TrEMBL record:
Any GO MF annotation of the entry: transmembrane transporter activity
Signal sequence residues: none
Entry's Gene Ontology cellular component terms: plasma membrane
Transmembrane parts of this sequence: 32-52, 59-82, 88-109, 129-154, 182-207, 219-245, 265-283
Key words, A-Z: Cell membrane, Membrane, Transmembrane, Transmembrane helix
Keyword Kinase: no
Organism: Bosea spartocytisi
Main location: membrane
UniProt protein name: ABC transporter permease
Source domain of life: Bacteria
Location of the protein in the cell: Cell membrane
InterPro entries, alphabetized: ABC_transp_permease
Length: 303
């Protein structure tokens, strides 16, 4: 039972980790994109539609990444090139993603595809204990590798230092010759790619089928995770798995036959935890806002 719980926890945490990691990079560049939920839904429907039509999981995952990037570029053009309000534009992107995914996925409702499976041989992936390590699919391993890669990129590379400089003081970065808008475009595109991949994980691995609003608000939890982690990839990994554990409470309670607590209460536990975390951080001595990039959400125009 413990192994089963851990496997469920890892699966539930992976899309959160991917989406929040992409948003962390975007916010490190000074861009606040509240459209994570919309980008995840675009990736979920695109990945499922392509995988179902072609029979190829690889093409489905690629389509999800491209759909997430395309949705992110809509936001980037409006917020970065046209200097529209980033909060309003992000909310509009979420609304667009909900509507577009419902329209595109109308013909795929109730259809199923073969679940994204483990990449190691059955001797390892189906072992009673070792399957915790070797029984995961490629997206799980990729998400963990991305955490390490992003952490190294932000802390140890010149490009990461430039990205952080753009997020902390865009005017100074521009004054010494760095293309602020281009760097932010790249960061937003990366965030869109991971959000799209995280969305596809719902429709290709967790479910695996298509249904309207399949992500069920996980994009908002991903946004809260970035604040919870204080914009640090390592802490983000711990936070994603912590929230993943909270999200598995409903399934584990049902499996254990808990009847004294309504399932609706358990289903809303992740969202209550999100509110609680943000409230505690805002009331704490060192708030999440003090750790945020100084130019987060502020428009930039080259003068």
């Amino acid at each position: 039972m413990l192994v089963s719980i851990i496997m469920t926890l890892i699966a539930a945490s992976t899309p959160l980790l991917l989406a929040s990691l992409g948003e962390l990079v975007a916010e490190k560049s000074g861009v606040l994109n509240l459209g994570v939920e919309g980008m995840m839904l675009c990736g979920a429907v695109a990945g499922f539609a392509v995988a179902f039509s072609s029979g190829s999981m690889a093409l489905g995952l690629l389509a999800a990444i491209l759909a997430g990037v395309a949705a992110a570029m809509v936001f980037a053009v409006l917020a970065l090139s046209l200097t529209a309000n980033q909060v309003a534009t992000g909310l509009a992107l979420t609304i667009f993603g909900i509507g577009a995914s419902s329209l595109i996925g109308a013909g795929f409702v109730g259809r199923t595809v073969q679940r994204l499976g483990p990449i190691f041989p059955a001797a390892l992936s189906e072992h009673p204990i070792l399957r915790i390590v070797f029984g995961q699919d490629v997206v799980v391993y990729l998400s963990l590798a991305l955490v390490a890669g992003v952490s190294y990129f932000l802390r140890r590379t010149r490009a990461g230092l430039i990205l952080r400089a753009v997020g902390e003081n865009d005017a100074s970065a521009h004054a010494i010759g760095y293309p602020v808008v281009a760097i932010r475009y790249a960061a937003v595109a990366f965030g869109g790619a991971l959000a799209g991949l995280g969305g596809a994980y719902f429709s290709l691995a967790l479910t695996p089928m298509w249904a309207e609003r399949l992500t069920a608000g996980r994009g908002w939890i991903a946004l809260a995770l970035v604040v919870f982690s204080a914009w640090k990839p390592g802490r983000l990994l711990l936070g994603a798995y912590l929230f993943g554990a909270v999200m598995t409470l409903e399934l584990q309670a049902k499996a254990a036959g808990v009847s004294w607590l309504a399932p609706e209460v358990l289903a809303m536990a992740p969202y209550l935890a999100t509110i609680a975390v943000l409230t505690m951080m805002s009331l704490g001595r060192k708030t999440g806002r003090l750790d945020a990039p100084a130019c987060l959400g502020k428009p930039f125009t080259a003068s």
